[in-house]
Every structure is written in C-alpha cells, then in structure tokens.
Amino acid sequence: MTTSTENKVYQSAWGFHPCDKDTYIKLRKLNHWFLKAQIKAAEWNRWNRKDKQNRVIRKFIRNDQGQKIGAEIIGPKTEPNLDSIFCKIDKETSCYSRYDWTRTAQTYWLRKIKFGESTREEYCFYLTGLYVNSFGIDKDYQNAKRPRTEENVQPLKNSVEQINTLYEKVLEWENSF
Hints:
Radius of gyration: 21 Å
Number of domains: 1
Largest sheet: 5 strands, antiparallel
Distance between the termini: 26 Å
Number of helices: 4
C-alpha cells in the first residue's frame, strides 16, 4: 500500500481525527482481524515448533482427589488454519540465521523488516518462514482513534480507497467460510 497525500481533518466531540467515522469503524474491524491473524500465527508457530510425535491431544487422568496422575493420548493435533490475508508461509525466509533476530516475550524468534520508505510496509517474519503483514492497518488505527488538536493531526498511511479495498477483501474472505 502506498502513502496517501490527503490531509483532510474531521472533527468529533473529543477533538480532530484524520478520517471520518465510517473509515474509523472499518479500521477498527481490520485491526481486529489483524490481531486475530496474529493469534492464529502464534498458534501455528507453537504447533510447528513441536516434533511430529509431540503434536498430540492429551486427556489427563485424575484420581479421587482430582489430582493429575497421568495422561492418555487421544489423537494427533491437526495443523492450525492460517487462511488469512494477513498471514503467509514462505519457506525461503526460514533459512536466515538468528544474528539479526530478536527474542520476544512469547518465546519465538521474530524479525521485523521494513521494505523501503516509499511503501512503509512492515512484515513480521518468524524463524519458521511464517510472516504477518499488517498493511499499516495497526498504525492507522492507533492514529485514527486518538483525538488531537487540528494542527497536530497526522494523515493516515493508507488512503481511504486502499482501506475500503482491503476491508472488502477481508470481508469477502471471511464470508467464504
């Protein structure tokens, strides 16, 4: 997505914003879907880190006092679904060394890459080859939800047309299930 040059300012009861209410609601829904995609990516990453023999569903056996005394294996755990516009798997990125990667609190290796100043797109690569692309939605949402003074309003990174297009793509993808 490209940078927009629109500098429109919209006034609400609390201050000034870079977009109107309809665009803000779409940004909020897109941000929600992006956060859900991040959760799914983390779930897939946890599944992928395990060896094949350890990807199983267990049922715990309890004694009369309710204490766990063992576990039985019910069956294999299936691969989590990653069918999202925000998540992709690219095996070519998994061959990077961990030299420029950072360890996150969620205990997986992560590398944020910015692809040029003109696009301002930021990808989050995992060491397994999974990457999550926000399309700048998270930053636009944070920018749009905070009221500011009229001269301090920063324009959105994505244009309204790009936000509408991405919203329609995600809505179409979600309704396909």
